[in-house]
Amino acid sequence: MSGIAGVNQPGKEHTVKKMLKKISHRGNAGWKVKKIENATLGIVYTESQKKSLSRLMQKNEASDGGGSGHLALAKAKENGIILKRDPLGVAPLYYGKDGEGTLCFASEVKALIDFCSDVKLVPPGCKSDGEQVTSYYELEKKEPLKIKPEIIAKHLRHLIKSAIERKTDQAAELGCWLSGGLDSSAMASLSSANGHKLYTFAVGLEGSPDLEFAQAVAQFIDSEHYEVVVNFNNFRSVLPEVIYHLESFDALLVRSSIVNYIVAQKASEYVNEVLSGEGGDELFAGYHYLKRLPPEELEDELIDITKRLHNTALQRVDRSASAHGTVAHVCFLDPEVVDYALRIPAEYKIRDNVEKWILRVAFDGMLPEQVLNRKKSKFWEGAGVGELMSDYADSTITDDDFRRERILKNGWIINSKEELFYYRIFREQFGELENLSWMGRTKGISAME
After folding, report:
1. Which CATH number applies to 149-386?
2. pLDDT tens sequence across 361-375
3. Which distant-in-sequence residues (6+ apart) come within 8 Å of 135 by Cβ?
4. Which residue among 64, 189, 271, 353 is least packed, with the fewest CB closer than 10 Å?
């Protein structure tokens, strides 16, 4: 993922360079700072996002773009900088004001906290001038399709395939983070069918379900497959890096990011671009708790959890990829796919108590049967992480320490010893920040099952 940073004032090259240095991992192909009449803009960019450089030089725009539905943009105009973020928040974007009240912006919080005391995020589907935030897009329910499910499934598969083609049309080689679940397997299958030289990557403990299912998919689609077999010590040793890049201490988010970070690191050894199956559970009802909802409440809940992706799961995807200088494409969240998914009737998303039923119909024959019918497993669960991190935290943090430290300065309450364990690492790296309004927290912590 490219990284952007800037200040709404000319002559701030030194400051912008410092900001870019903090996020230099986001761009391994080069960097550029441009001074213009009323602002200073900068970018770091990946090999596959070199268009960002020409956009900066020709249009005075700092951008992190990864195809349709992936954009963080800062455009310098006569009356100041305008910030814009894509509809669902695939690309991150934050802003704040320095001690002189000047607007600053960046792709990650770590680039701003040395200069701004009150960091905020640009919400998905919004624009901001640093003073006012205005919405240009709202995720909302649509009129349901009134056609046969077989026709819906066929067109859905076509839209996802087209999204992959648009986002990866310049990539001769492509990778896929492959958990062996339905979503990532669907991405790998379609990418293989598109004719890419495809590499797939899986991570897990020895004998974990993800490794087994991912291997089955790789053999079925004939990808060049790589496994990373890990143990608890690997998880523990990489944790400070994960939290530094993730910029969060949310327990479930960190836990899943450990696995994602490791598989992203492996993928970066072979490819510059990868596919992620993120968004499938939210659009097509993949979580088990959704089965307990009354059918008439399902669509509202799916919209709610999709809106929450930007500073939770999508943040994990972005930071895991960008930490290693790669670009992750989330093709389920392509605007055309999202628009169509919102029109699919709820009864086709959960049918006969089967979650993501319509997606399984769409990929019937394109995946091994055991994968097509695999039940939802959390990213960290299928890799075998399970309660390892929770048990470790319980053994190292006393009850007295937990009671004493669990209430933060901003009033937030730490939910578990595991989360406190992560917060301590976060605090070592970023200090005891009072403003955490930009940080997301997993909905209901334990509800998303």
Report:
1. 3.40.50.620
2. 999 999 999 999 998
3. 123, 125, 126
4. 353
